[in-house]
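Exercise 7b. Backbone tokens:
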């Protein structure tokens, strides 16, 4: 299917997911000796070490909530408060560390989404997984793709989320909107994906996972 023929609806994504998304959690989520499928280093081939040192990765999960609107799906994103000690003000997916009480990454992503933005897990239909994503801060992240019923309602936890907003799936899955930026970080030049949308600057791991989404599902 050519990109210009995509409808970017939730129902279409559900069908594409069967062949394009991973239907099982990747083994690299549990065996850290297996390289992560994607990472903060994708655009930085000279980076081989963990940017935070040699710490063992910590397992985390995020939910990529795709709102199933009839006229075109949208992706729900959050913006972290500026008061947060790590990644203040950054755009992110709901998510966090996988706790011992969780029944795996999928359950953790739904729990975190409920805690952070009040998203009812009963309104989420998980349809697959992206490749594991290794962050430079030492997390091995499992991105869980979920279709969310359009009747959803939110209640933000102000300690973790300053704002929640939607971006059209079509915008995020259009390669023309996938910019490559760079900056000097710890004395070295580091490149990263960015997808500016209005006054929202989507970049880093969030943009990297969205690029993986595009590569798996909508790339020609």
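Sequence design result:
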């Amino acid at each position: 299917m050519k990109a210009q023929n995509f409808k970017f609806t939730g129902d279409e994504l559900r069908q594409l997911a069967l062949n394009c998304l991973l239907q099982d959690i990747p083994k690299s989520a549990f065996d850290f000796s297996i390289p992560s499928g994607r990472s903060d280093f994708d655009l930085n081939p000279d980076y081989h070490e963990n940017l935070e040192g040699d710490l063992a990765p910590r397992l985390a999960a995020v939910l990529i909530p795709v709102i199933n609107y009839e006229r075109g799906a949208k992706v729900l994103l959050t913006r972290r408060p500026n008061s947060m000690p790590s990644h203040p003000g950054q755009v992110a997916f709901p998510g966090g560390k996988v706790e011992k009480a969780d029944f795996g990454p999928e359950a953790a992503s739904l729990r975190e989404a409920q805690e952070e933005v009040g998203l009812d897990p009963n309104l989420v239909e998980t349809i697959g997984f992206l490749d594991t994503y290794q962050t430079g801060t030492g997390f091995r992240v499992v991105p869980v793709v979920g279709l969310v019923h359009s009747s959803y309602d939110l209640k933000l936890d102000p300690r973790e989320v300053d704002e929640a907003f939607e971006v059209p799936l079509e915008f995020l899955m259009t390669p023309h909107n996938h910019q490559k930026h760079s900056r000097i970080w710890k004395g070295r030049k580091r490149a990263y994906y960015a997808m500016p949308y209005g006054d929202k600057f989507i970049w880093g791991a969030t943009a990297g996972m969205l690029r993986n989404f595009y590569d798996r599902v909508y790339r020609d």
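Instructor comment: The longest strand covers residues 58-67. The chain has a mean pLDDT of 91.
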